[in-house]
Write a structure and sequence with these properties.
Length: about 180
């Protein structure tokens, strides 16, 4: 019997808190230190999200750390509440609101960085090993690394703090 993905709910709770801070952006108090967060991007269309993901995947540090990841496809996922990564087709499925494909809560940089982390990890290790703990410490550590690369060290520090505050293990993510 496969182990359950026990960390998932904790990871999602931590990321929701972090994403809300990134919606606001600006200076926050972080355990007594002042940190300046960027404001995260919100996207209107699948095409915009595809462009964003293409940009991340040609980042030179991303390419050198995950040389076999390659490009990722972003598609709409109708009638579903969760964003999702499909490793077999290297596809990120994002729920849109409404029949006309209006943007939803999921059309955010924080959500894409989560799903891109799955894409990077599936390219770099045995998929069967990843599937056991899909939101485990390899995931949280890699997501902090990717956030540090794309959004900067302060956004990564706050994400790491949110994970740790939820009781999720994060490894050292700075190279
Ligand atoms: Zn996930």
């Amino acid at each position: 019997m496969a182990e359950r993905d026990t960390a998932r709910a904790l990871v999602y709770a931590a990321e929701n808190q972090w994403s809300a801070a990134l919606d606001r952006g600006g200076v926050i108090d972080f355990f007594g230190s002042k940190l300046t967060l960027p404001q995260q991007k919100q996207f209107e269309t699948i095409e915009d999200m595809q462009k964003y993901c293409n940009g991340v995947m040609v980042n030179e540090h991303v390419m050198s750390r995950y040389p076999s990841a390659g490009s990722v496809v972003v598609r709409a996922r109708a009638g579903q509440r969760m964003a999702h990564y499909e490793s077999a087709s290297k596809t990120i499925a994002i729920p849109l609101s409404g029949t006309a494909g209006e943007p939803s809560w999921a059309c955010r940089e924080s959500v894409l960085l989560h799903e891109l982390t799955h894409h990077l990890l599936f390219s770099s290790a045995d998929p069967a090993a990843i599937a056991i703990a899909i939101h485990g410490s390899a995931f949280t550590t890699s997501m902090c690394w990717l956030v540090c690369e794309v959004l900067g060290s302060e956004a990564a520090l706050v994400l790491q703090g949110a994970f740790q505050g939820s009781g999720v293990i994060v490894g050292a993510y700075v190279d």
